[in-house]
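User: Can you recover a sequence for this backbone? Please restate the input before giving your answer.

Assistant: Of course. Working from this structure:
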């Protein structure tokens, strides 16, 4: 098989090939999101996942919570890491999946690989997709959904027991991570304040947010709650908001979870720890967990969580879809269809 594009892991309508290492699975995809060792490209639907590029400051800009090395380097290719598909072959050590299983998961978010028909992935990177969940709905979940879920857990939110009354702020709430975070926070019984652009206020309200603020207004820029509530936690999905803006809006032990951490975030986080500050800044390091992926899929299956799809592009126009993703103006997820 030739190497048409880079890809590391892909999930959608995938086709597995023979001779795989023991714990690997190869698949033919229908929907993708991001990865790095391309095998072949034909039909599949790719959900464009967030992807990292270098900005002029030498730090890495992250999209949708994709945490990568903070190096000064340019990204030479789209790195799509989310995918949903069908298993066509498994390695000898694979015992959780079999040929014909419909799966979804996250490829290597360092290298991508989702813009392909075929991909190889590990057992830990994917989960069975219920028939009630469409490939396009599933393909948007892995990075953005897991980032939202793990951010809430980092604040201390639980999903198996009732939570104390907590006030949560979610910035960039109409984006890929943000729109999942709003829904998951409401599912957990939290009071949600959200920021977004004026055109998306009604959408974010429909997802369950209790208060929605236009980030371009003076109050929105200050991140103030319209009801003057202090935040027990913040899921920070935007960029370029300093700690000094968050701090006066936090409760006495409030936490800010930064899903796009850079050197400044990490340094500030360390400083908060060594000074024993009760208010904390926590950089999120996303980890792929199949159990959490199954939890999200079940919520979608039960109608308690949905993927908002901004737009769908054919593979021939994947570059346009990628450009929209990088522009930061997408509402929800972008899907690439083959």
């Amino acid at each position: 098989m030739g190497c048409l594009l880079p890809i590391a892991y892909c999930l959608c309508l995938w086709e597995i090939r023979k001779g795989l290492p023991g714990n690997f699975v190869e698949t033919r995809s229908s929907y993708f999101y991001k990865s790095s060792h391309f095998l072949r490209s034909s039909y599949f639907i790719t959900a464009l996942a967030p992807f990292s590029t270098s900005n002029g400051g030498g730090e890495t800009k992250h999209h949708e919570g994709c945490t990568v090395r903070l190096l000064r380097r340019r990204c030479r290719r789209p790195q799509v890491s989310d995918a949903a598909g069908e298993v066509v072959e498994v390695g000898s050590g694979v015992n959780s999946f079999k040929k014909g299983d419909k799966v979804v998961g996250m490829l290597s978010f360092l290298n991508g690989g989702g813009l392909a028909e075929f991909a190889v992935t590990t057992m830990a990177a994917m989960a069975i997709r219920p028939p009630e969940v469409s490939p396009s709905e599933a393909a948007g979940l892995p990075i953005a959904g897991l980032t939202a879920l793990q951010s809430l857990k980092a604040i201390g939110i639980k999903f198996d027991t009732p939570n104390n009354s907590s006030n949560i702020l979610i910035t960039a709430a109409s984006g890929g991570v943000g729109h999942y975070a709003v829904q998951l926070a409401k599912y957990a019984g939290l009071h949600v304040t959200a920021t977004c652009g004026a055109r998306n206020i009604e959408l974010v309200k429909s997802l369950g947010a209790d208060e929605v603020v236009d980030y371009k207004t003076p109050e929105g820029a200050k991140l103030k709650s319209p009801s003057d509530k202090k935040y027990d936690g913040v899921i920070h999905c935007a960029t370029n908001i300093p700690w000094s803006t968050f701090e006066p809006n936090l409760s006495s032990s409030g936490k800010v979870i930064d899903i796009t951490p850079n050197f400044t975030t990490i340094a500030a986080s360390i400083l908060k720890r060594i000074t024993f500050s009760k208010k904390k800044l926590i950089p999120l390091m996303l980890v792929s967990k199949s159990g959490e992926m199954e939890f999200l899929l079940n919520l979608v299956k039960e109608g308690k969580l949905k993927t908002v799809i901004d737009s769908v592009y054919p593979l021939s126009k994947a570059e346009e879809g990628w450009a929209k993703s990088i522009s930061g103006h997408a509402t929800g997820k972008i899907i690439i269809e083959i």
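That completes the design. DSSP finds nine helices and 16 strands in the chain.
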